[in-house]
TrEMBL record:
Coiled-coil stretches noted in the UniProt entry, renumbered to this chain: none
Domain of life the protein comes from: Bacteria
Official protein name in the record: TAP domain protein
Family assignment from sequence similarity: Belongs to the peptidase S33 family.
Domain AB hydrolase-1: 111-299
Lineage summary: Bacteria, Bacillati, Actinomycetota, Actinomycetes, Propionibacteriales
Pfam families xrefs: Abhydrolase_1, Abhydrolase_4
One function term, GO molecular function aspect: hydrolase activity
Alphabetized InterPro entries for the sequence: AB_hydrolase_1, AB_hydrolase_fold, Pept_S33_TAP-like_C, Serine_prot/Carboxylest_S33
Length: 618
């Protein structure tokens, strides 16, 4: 097994030869850094109306000694490059003072793009109370999302009703191609329909972050970023290297490359997590899970059979429960190890449905309850029946129950919007699709504007990765009308930052994270976690080793003297770690050149993670 510094050397060799000779979009000019704007004094002098955050009581239930967290909204320019050219917008923030001697301001981001982070810093501290004592904690919803001024993606009932439909995006037919092109164009038009659309970008959010640091008069900013939050962290460090405090970048995007290259990792990284960890786990628990198989091959065959039956019912007009929706549920749910039980339940619920379809064409209470009964009590202890019922909308969540979050994808947004359009009184009636996180991706880096390029790639990926190879289809960025505000990241002048990466992460591929590390060797230290696939590691990690390294850095500033490989703890309801021959062991997918946790985390932190995972396809 390759260990320590050998990881970067061995894998750097693997990263030279292209995996995908057709995956690089049309050559674009090399990005250059935009000018760093000054902050007009009026924004720093603005009066701020603070009030106790609505979630403060929940924080104190989880950690009674927590300081009070206050919330407010602050005004920032819509466009930092031209502060007077557009109306101001608002960014929602939360803040608490350190209970001990403050080491400065600590912010965070949960991912996305588009993940709301207002509660995250406080939620992390309920799991790691030393954050409350050592840092002033800042949470914020990025511009365009959550309680900040919302991005509005506006279309009309007529345009929605004109959209073609396909029974299954996985079937790479002319109909599917036509659907994907039409949906992408509608989404691009909708999200660029207001003047705000072009300014919902990473670079503008980085300027917002620097404004918040200055607003609180903190000399530097410390930061814990997950997933897309690593992109924000890397961009901030490149734009404001002298202001970088202690940055933990966890579950890293390949943030020195393009947004397209990042989303094109998803099919292989998602399939690797499913096939090397979820399905083997289900097979090993065949005595505790009824009817899915006792080998990974049997589990996969059963999954494919269930999915095929779902598609057959949709094509017959007898069901609205789609096979591609099941794929999306599984992809987002396996972000977390403890959610293997929920992923298993999703498969079982759909199995019950295809065995006994409902007259309503939807999942009903009996399907959920029968699925639940197919799990042993030991596995049921990792979730609740009430949460799963609420997840499928067959009962309302009880007042004391946190509902299992439903997957929120761009495709489901359009499906819901079409239902709204069907009730419209006129074709020109506007319909707000809400804030689509892909807008950020379109504004950040250059994309090909040839839909055929993406169709060919989705067709090829669907053949190569049979789980979710088709997932990207044609992105709305193919039709985006605004030029991106990109950066050329070199991190010149930045102190070292800590990168933490699980080997089998389904959402941010290990290979891409390592490539970014190799691009930034002078400014990053890399901690790999062998045989681990959870998305989001530091704070509540399955790896005691990674947790300890993160703690030393966050609370003392000490980084390892060299890159590290950590071990991890077993998956739920298991006593040992089962090895996977993955990229840490030298078995990487080739890319284009260029303390032990129990599995249970703070319920508030788990809810933040679930929401971000569920919105990962939006």
């Amino acid at each position: 097994m390759i260990k320590n510094q050998k990881v970067a050397v061995a894998l750097a060799a693997l990263l030279v030869a292209p995996l995908l000779t057709t995956t690089t979009a049309a050559a674009a000019p090399q990005p250059t850094d935009p000018p760093t704007p000054s902050i007009p004094q009026k924004y720093l002098d603005q009066p701020i109306q603070w009030s106790v955050c609505s979630f403060d009581a929940q924080i104190k239930r989880l950690y009674p000694q927590a300081p009070t967290t206050n919330c407010a909204k602050v005004k920032v320019p819509m466009d930092w490059a031209n502060p007077t050219a557009h109306p101001d917008i608002e960014v929602a923030i939360s803040y608490s003072k350190a209970t001990g001697t403050s080491r400065g301001l600590m912010a965070s981001n949960p991912g996305g793009p588009g993940g709301a982070g207002l509660t995250l810093s406080a939620a992390l501290a309920t799991e790691k109370p030393q954050l409350f004592s050592d840092f002033d904690l800042l949470g914020f919803d990025p511009r365009g999302f959550g309680q900040s001024t919302p991005l509005q993606c506006i279309t009309t009932a007529e345009e929605l009703e004109a959209l073609p439909v396909t029974p299954d995006y996985k079937e790479r037919t002319k109909l599917t191609h036509r659907v994907e092109v039409a949906e992408a164009k509608l989404l691009a038009d909708a999200c660029s329909a207001t003047e705000f659309g072009q300014f919902v970008s990473s670079q503008q959010t980085v300027y917002d972050m620097e404004f918040l640091r200055a607003l609180f008069k903190s000399r530097q900013l410390s930061f814990i970023g997950y997933s897309y939050g690593t992109w924000l962290g890397g961009w901030y460090a490149d734009a404001y290297p002298s202001k970088v405090g202690r940055f933990v970048l966890d579950s890293n995007m390949d943030w020195t490359h393009t947004q397209w290259q990042n989303v094109n990792f998803d099919p292989f990284s998602g399939q690797r997590r499913r096939d090397t960890q979820l399905f083997p786990w289900i097979a090993r628990h065949a005595d505790q899970i009824t009817g899915l198989g006792s080998t990974p091959a049997q589990v996969k065959a059963r999954y494919n059979g269930i999915r095929a039956s779902l598609v057959t019912l949709v094509k017959a007009g007898e069901s609205s429960v789609r096979g591609d929706d099941l794929d999306g549920k599984i992809y987002s749910t396996i972000y977390g190890n403890v959610r293997f039980i929920r992923a298993t339940l999703d498969i079982l619920v759909h199995d019950e449905f295809v065995k006994d379809p409902s007259a309503s064409g939807a999942v009903e209470l009996r399907h959920v309850d029968k699925a639940w009964a197919r799990l042993s009590p030991e596995l049921q202890a990792f979730d609740t029946l009430a949460a799963i019922r609420a997840r499928y909308g067959v009962t309302a969540a009880a007042a004391d129950t946190v509902a299992a979050v439903q997957v929120d994808s761009a495709k489901s947004v359009l499906a819901d919007a079409r239902q709204t359009a069907a009730r419209a009184t006129s074709g020109d009636q506007p319909v707000n699709l809400g804030a689509i996180g892909t807008t950020v991706r379109c504004n950040d880096t250059a994309w090909s504007h040839d839909p055929k390029f993406y169709l060919r790639e989705a067709d090829r990926m669907a053949r190569k990765y049979d789980f979710f190879g088709y997932m990207n289809g044609v992105p709305m960025c193919a039709f985006w009308k605004y030029a991106p505000q990109d950066r050329k990241l070199d991190l010149k002048g930045s102190p070292r930052m800590l990168m933490v990466q699980a080997e089998l992460d389904p959402a941010t591929a290990y290979e891409g994270a390592l490539r970014t590390h190799n691009d930034t060797l002078r400014a990053t230290r890399f901690v790999a976690i062998d045989d681990e696939g959870q998305h989001g590691q530091y704070i509540g990690s399955a790896s005691a080793c990674a947790e300890a390294i993160g703690d030393r850095f966050v609370f003392t500033g000490e980084l390892p003297g060299k890159d590290q490989v950590c071990g991890t703890s077993p998956l739920p309801a298991e006593l040992s770690v089962f090895p996977v021959d993955g990229p840490v062991d030298g078995n990487a997918v080739r890319l284009p050149k260029s303390r032990a946790n129990t599995g249970k985390t703070s319920p508030m932190l788990q809810q933040v993670r679930d929401i971000v995972a569920a919105g990962s396809l939006r």
